[in-house]
Fold:
Amino acid sequence: MATNVKEKVAAAQAKIDLAKNKYAVELHTSKGPIRLTLLPEAAPGHVKNFVALAQVGFYNGLAFHRIIKGFMIQGGCPEGTGSGGPGYQIKAEFNKTPHEPGVLSMARTSDPNSAGSQFFLCLGRHTHLDGQYTAFGKTADEESLTTVRAIGNVATETSEIFSGMNEFWTVGASLSQTLFAGGTLYHRERAARAGVDIAGAQYRLAVLTAFQNVADALRALAADGDAVRAEERAYSASMASLAITRQQFDLGAVSYLALLIAQQTYQQAVIGRAQALMNRYVDSAALYQALGGNAPPPRH
Structure:
């Protein structure tokens, strides 16, 4: 089902004053509360977007649809599959906030300016995310970080889905702004029946999530392959250009400045090649984990 709350969010944002007020958001989950401190000084647009989405009730009843142990937990998709959004996108606000345990950051596609409503909370220190994703908040206290870690330990990998009932079935994250309150008392029998329906829906979601993670990893590896080939070509071309420029400099045909520029271009190509290879290694590990492998958590 398509979701578009652009006008509602714009109206809510018009009333948000980051200069005069301090905003906080709390996520109510079955594992406990996640209280978030927002960072408007680092990413004001993302903070306003997140607060406004909470105020209009966009996050109510949504789940953490993607959980990768040792990496992150991701939520904010109205479809529950990782493919949904609020019907609009916002511009990136990359900043110097390190992606470490408890940091709140915005999910996106390969387009830097494609964030909308999906966000993630880090389970570890991941330097490859720094400057590539917009961090705009963090857990406010130890209890909140403990909740994030508890959700991060939920079994969602392909090899764990069919291992019987486990704590995954209790994780149906209901997200709301701090002041949100709601709930209805049900008869025990009706609650039990509803619980069975919820467990079944969460089971189906877990299966879809597992296959979605595999598909995401395969797409990422395909893109990584293209990037590596492009960087290899740039590396080879810059190395050949540097060799020619050195010969010309030795013969007095070009200036020392031209040689320095050629050396700089070569070094940039070396860095680009290394970055592309690193991304491929990271996504290879993600694919291994999505297929049920016991990959170790990222090291600091």
Q: What stands out?
A: The two ends are 40 Å apart (CA to CA). The beta strands are 24-29, 32-38, 64-68, 72-75, 103-106, 119-122, 135-139, 174-177. The chain has six helices and eight strands.
